[in-house]
Design a protein that fits this description.
The protein is mainly α. It is about 60% helix and about 10% strand. It has 17 helices and 10 strands. Strands 1-2 form a two-stranded antiparallel sheet. A hairpin with a 2-residue loop joins β8 and β9. It starts with a strand and ends in a 7-residue tail after the last helix.
């Protein structure tokens, strides 16, 4: 491997001659060998979109001449339109809390590629400088949080159609299960009857509520602090830079971004990112309930509830032949647990990181939010295709449980009183009889008894 020598305020350093990053990135590679994990593609692309918007604003203001601006524009379009240079962002996600190293990584890649386009060697910071040109009117402190918002909005807009697909498939199951009445359960004990479709309506309602929450999250994320530079005061940025940048960014992304009226708020704190993460946690809790309920109702096939028949996707045991497990429920539950854990990290990042004038947990916060959305998309799609789509009701088992249910006696409470109903239920349970048999043995005369004890009439 051949190297080129670059120089900064700390001295000289060798950089591989064929890479587009520069000395700032090389120092970060050496100093942050922690996890081997790098920023996801969506964050790098979002950062590139922001750099393009900033460039166009600076060119419009006359701060960057056309030749240099066109070269940088070509470089950034190679990332955005051609998926080039995406292997030039090697820095570990565990770095400075402002994300400065990643911002400089992008600045250096664009500067070196643009200089190369103009026929100059890389690594000389001439004719295009990573700070003076690519980073003009910007600071990592406003660039990184803006990229955080851009990438999060993009991913949430990918998640919402998946949730709509889940709602559609739950609606199909609701229609399929509409006439099925089963034993309800509270505290894992038999309760009064409930339509199977109603249980699935609960899941649907929660997902619809979560979709609305995520739309509110997007509304908040559209306010960005770009133009605030270091602390939100706008130092070294033209008074119109923020407006022009937001206009260009909105066109580039087809989203209606707006200037945060208090840019310092979006720099010193990431409360909105925490809000996004908490909304993902609430979604995870809803999904976890659905997956866990279906897993319980599918337990068996002979010694469990066995009210639902889950698709048989793969063998479930390496030792027990023929065993089939609720693997899709288990996978989705694990996704939800990871999302809940990610939210704990994001919450801590806001809690411990937002000190005075700069939140210094930006990388770990955004990486966990993006990871949560990514695995939710994959987990939900897998659950729909491999579990929900082929899910069936075991009506034979459901009806057998109904015939033996005890809590149907609840419907008699207004007629003969709570205490007498309790006596009937306890005796039926201890003697292994139905409530109807016990009532007749006790000599109780109740009009329309069959109708009163009919589970389907109770729902």
């Amino acid at each position: 491997m051949s190297f080129r020598t670059e120089k900064d305020v700390l001295g000289e350093l060798e950089v591989p001659s064929d890479v587009y990053w520069g000395i700032n990135t090389q120092r970060a590679i050496q100093n942050f060998q922690i996890s081997g994990k790098t920023f996801p593609k969506i964050f790098i692309v979002s950062l590139g979109r922001l750099k393009k918007a900033c460039l166009l604003a600076n060119m419009e203001l006359g701060f960057i001449d056309k030749e240099i601006g066109d070269a940088i524009l070509q470089a950034v379009n190679e990332i955005l339109n051609e998926n080039k240079l995406l292997d030039q962002f090697p820095i570990d996600i565990y770095q400075t809390g402002s994300g400065t190293q990643t911002n400089m990584n992008m600045n250096e890649v664009l500067a070196n590629r643009a200089s190369q386009i103009l026929g100059f060697p890389m690594g000389k910071k001439h004719p295009i400088h990573p700070n003076d040109h690519v980073n003009k009117s910007q600071s990592s402190n406003d660039v990184i949080p803006t990229a955080m918002h851009i990438s999060t909005v993009h991913m949430i807009k990918k998640l919402i159609p998946v949730l709509n697909r889940l709602v559609e498939n739950l609606t199909i199951k609701i229609d399929e299960f509409e006439e099925i009445v089963k034993v309800g359960r509270t505290h894992l004990q038999d309760a009064v009857p409930i339509p199977l479709s109603l249980e699935f309506k609960v899941y649907k309602r929660q997902i619809e509520t979560n979709i609305e929450r995520l739309r509110h999250v997007i509304d908040e994320l559209l306010f960005i602090p770009i133009g605030g530079t270091a602390l939100g005061t706008g130092l070294n940025a033209h008074k119109d830079f923020d407006k022009l940048t937001v206009n260009h960014l909105s066109k580039i992304t087809s989203l209606s971004f707006k200037n945060n009226p208090i840019k310092a708020e979006g720099i010193s704190s990431h409360n909105t990112i925490a809000y996004a993460s908490s909304s993902l946690r609430l979604l995870a809790l809803s999904l976890l309930k659905m997956a866990n309920d279906i897993r319980w109702m599918g337990s068996g096939p002979r010694a469990g509830l066995s009210e639902l028949i889950l698709p048989q996707n793969e063998p479930g045991s390496s030792i027990m032949p023929g065993k089939i497990n609720p693997t899709q429920s288990e996978a989705l539950i694990q996704v939800c647990l990871q999302v809940i854990g990610n939210d704990s990290v994001v919450t801590s990042g806001e809690m411990y990181g937002s000190i005075l004038d700069l939140n210094m947990s930006k990388p770990v916060m955004i990486v966990n939010v993006l990871d949560s959305i990514e695995i939710l998309i994959g987990g939900i799609n897998s659950f729909i295709s491999n579990c929900l789509f082929g899910l069936e009701a075991n009506t034979e088992q459901i009806n057998m449980n109904l015939d033996q249910m005890i809590m149907s006696v609840t419907n008699l409470s207004p007629i003969i009183g709570y205490d007498k109903c309790s006596e009937i239920a306890q005796r039926a349970h201890k003697e292994g009889k139905t409530c109807k048999v016990v009532i007749k043995e006790m000599g109780l005369k109740i009009d329309n008894l069959d109708e009163l004890l009919d589970p389907k009439k109770m729902v």
